[in-house]
């Protein structure tokens, strides 16, 4: 298995429940430091984060439906960066994906990319459990064409489900190492996390980070 410390540096320690309080977010940040994870991911209204030195600050955009005007997503992303986010995880327009309008999907992502240019890291949530293989490939290609840094499986809120090994393998194969791949949604133990890493995930979105890390060896 992958060593615990190496896995920790793949983790976005996440709290995106709508009812999450200021105190719960502060506890998330403290736990992230204790666990040695790479990043925390919180809702935009919790930015800027206090006492987040030493961890990367990530947030979400157009979350969780993705059914927002591109201009609104772009404005949200710009505000997030102004409030201290180093990484933005945006949700694609799933309706456009279902309609096969990949130019619209790409333009939506590009609008957010323009509003949050490098060095901000842009991750694109494609909601892979709601897409077939052909749509997953096309969504990844649109994200790459629009200048994204990562493709990400899931919000964790869609009724279709979260990450799967198959989706991560397909996404990793499609982006070919040119983009990162974030597996998120339903990863609750070390075995599931290791399976995602083996499938090609280069980042993990976890809410149960401590429980997951407990299953990995120290070295």
Automatic annotation (TrEMBL):
EC number of this enzyme: 4.1.2.4
Keywords: Cytoplasm, Lyase, Schiff base
CDD domains: DeoC (cd00959)
Xref: Gene3D superfamilies: Aldolase class I
One Pfam family named in its UniProt record: DeoC
UniProt signal peptide: none
Positions annotated as active site in the UniProt record: 89 (proton donor/acceptor), 152 (schiff-base intermediate with acetaldehyde), 182 (proton donor/acceptor)
Molecular-function GO term, any one: deoxyribose-phosphate aldolase activity
Keyword Lyase tagged: yes
Major site of localization recorded for this protein: cytoplasm
Subcellular location: Cytoplasm
Record carries keyword Lyase: yes
SMART domains (alphabetical): DeoC
Taxonomic superkingdom: Bacteria
InterPro entries per the UniProt record, alphabetical: Aldolase_TIM, DeoC, DeoC/FbaB/LacD_aldolase, DeoC_typeI
Catalysed reaction, written as an equation: 2-deoxy-D-ribose 5-phosphate = D-glyceraldehyde 3-phosphate + acetaldehyde
Metabolic or biological pathway, per its Swiss-Prot or TrEMBL entry: Carbohydrate degradation; 2-deoxy-D-ribose 1-phosphate degradation; D-glyceraldehyde 3-phosphate and acetaldehyde from 2-deoxy-alpha-D-ribose 1-phosphate: step 2/2
Membership in a protein family: Belongs to the DeoC/FbaB aldolase family. DeoC type 1 subfamily.
Annotated HAMAP family: DeoC_type1
Function: Catalyzes a reversible aldol reaction between acetaldehyde and D-glyceraldehyde 3-phosphate to generate 2-deoxy-D-ribose 5-phosphate.
Protein name (database record): Deoxyribose-phosphate aldolase
Native species: Georgenia wutianyii
Upper taxonomic lineage: Bacteria, Bacillati, Actinomycetota, Actinomycetes, Micrococcales
């Amino acid at each position: 298995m992958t060593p615990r410390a190496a896995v920790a540096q793949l983790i976005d320690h996440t709290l995106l429940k709508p009812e999450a309080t200021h105190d719960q977010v502060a506890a998330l940040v403290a736990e992230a430091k204790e666990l040695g994870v790479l990043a925390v991911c919180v809702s935009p209204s919790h930015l800027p984060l206090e006492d987040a030195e030493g961890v990367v600050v990530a947030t979400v955009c157009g979350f969780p439906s993705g059914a927002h005007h591109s201009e609104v997503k772009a404005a949200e992303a710009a505000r997030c960066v102004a409030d201290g986010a180093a990484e933005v995880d945006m949700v694609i327009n799933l309706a456009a994906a279902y309609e096969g309008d990949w130019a619209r999907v790409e333009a939506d992502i590009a609008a957010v990319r323009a509003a949050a240019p490098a060095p901000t890291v842009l991750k694109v949530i494609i909601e892979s459990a709601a897409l077939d293989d052909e749509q997953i490939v096309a969504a990844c290609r649109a994200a790459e064409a629009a200048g994204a840094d990562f493709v990400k499986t899931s919000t964790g809120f869609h009724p279709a489900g979260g990450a799967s090994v198959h989706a991560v393998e397909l996404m990793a194969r499609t982006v070919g190492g040119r983009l990162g791949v974030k597996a998120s949604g339903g990863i609750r133990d070390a075995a599931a996390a290791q399976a995602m890493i083996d499938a090609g995930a280069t980042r993990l979105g976890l809410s149960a980070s401590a429980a997951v890390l407990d299953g990995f060896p120290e070295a």
